[in-house]
Write a structure and sequence with these properties.
By secondary structure, the protein is α/β, with parallel strands linked by helices. The chain has nine helices and seven strands, in the order βαβααββααββαααβα. The protein has helices at residues 13-20, 31-41, 43-53, 65-72, 76-100, 133-144, 148-155, 161-165, 177-191; strands at 2-7, 26-30, 58-59, 62-63, 106-110, 125-130, 170-173. The protein has a five-stranded parallel beta sheet with strand order 2-5-1-6-7, with helices on both faces. The two termini are 21 Å apart.
Length: 196
């Protein structure tokens, strides 16, 4: 079983994924992290990114993330092109991860843009992590040392929470960490049929 885990920027999706990581009978695929790794290691991705965004997209062989972000978060067409380059390679990588972890109770597929890039179609169940907008903005400013305007730019490229919630099986409201852990345990028990 594949369980999608998504949530808008600043929702605390990674915090929730790390709570699930305590369960030894599941495997977690961090799509965002794997995409970042593949953007630095995949020759196919590198060639296409340079062709599309210029040589500046790599600095000393490493992805120049701030240069790329300055382009794609202000231009939806460029963001769509970036996703079209990276997503198919991540998809193939994820398929081999599924095979390697076939014995697990379920695979948690953590992906910020699960709905936006159609990855929800790979999932049997979907969990969306939410938090009030002002809390999300504060978290991202603190984490990324950025501005409110930049955070809003990034939020504008993601689906609204309500749209995700309507297509999800479970919703975790991530404000208080203890409450969040309780919600994670309940969902895990349901997914593994351990109703307690």
């Amino acid at each position: 079983m594949i369980v999608g885990l998504t949530g808008g920027i600043g929702s605390g999706k990674s915090t929730v994924a790390n709570m699930f990581a305590k369960f030894s009978n599941i495997a977690i695929y961090f799509a965002d992290d794997e995409a970042k790794k593949l953007m630095n290691t995949s020759i196919e991705i590198k060639k296409k990114l340079i062709a599309e965004f210029s040589e500046e997209v790599y600095e000393n062989g490493k992805l120049n993330r701030s240069f790329l972000a300055s382009i794609v978060f202000k231009n939806k067409e460029k963001l769509a092109i970036l996703n079209a380059i990276v997503h198919p390679v991540v998809h193939v990588h994820f398929q081999s991860f599924i095979k390697e972890n076939a014995s697990k109770d379920y695979i948690l597929y953590e992906n910020a843009i699960l709905f936006e890039n159609g990855s929800n179609l790979l999932c049997d169940k979907i969990i969306t992590v939410t938090a009030p907008k002002n809390i999300k903005i504060q978290r991202v400013i603190k984490r990324d040392h950025t501005t409110e305007a930049e955070v809003n730019n990034r939020m504008n490229n993601q689906w609204l929470d309500i749209k995700k919630i309507l297509q999800s099986h479970y919703v975790i409201e991530n404000i208080n960490l203890q409450d969040t852990e309780d919600q994670v345990l309940k969902i895990h028990n349901k997914l593994t049929k351990k109703y307690v």
